[in-house]
């Protein structure tokens, strides 16, 4: 089983790099996961990650990209609630990549 080391603690990951235990997530874990994919998290990334974590807490599901785009647009405005913006932050797929960094399960409907 794969894992990452954050602050001297081994954090187990599944075969796709998502956290095995959602309670292991911390902002430092997000930074390590992003760094592993050559991504430096900016305030724009964190805005989406925090939104996703709030969404998951409320609905207990990680949204597919279409739902994510619509929900972000509703909450953060049309300039951020569009695929172009989200893919500029998470080029490997805003749903999958953002959920991974946010410590959430893989979104439903993602391949």
TrEMBL record:
EC number annotated for this UniProt entry: 2.8.1.-
Classification via NCBIfam families: dsrC_tusE_dsvC
Keyword Cytoplasm: yes
Biological process, per Gene Ontology: tRNA wobble position uridine thiolation
Classification via InterPro entries: DsrC-like_C, DsrC-like_dom_sf, DsrC-like_N, DsrC/TusE
Name of the protein described by the UniProt record: Sulfurtransferase
Active-site residues, Swiss-Prot/TrEMBL: 110 (cysteine persulfide intermediate)
Record Pfam families: DsrC
Entry's localization field: Cytoplasm
Gene Ontology molecular functions: sulfur carrier activity; transferase activity
Lineage per the UniProt record: Bacteria, Pseudomonadati, Pseudomonadota, Gammaproteobacteria, Thiotrichales
Source species: Thiothrix caldifontis
Source superkingdom: Bacteria
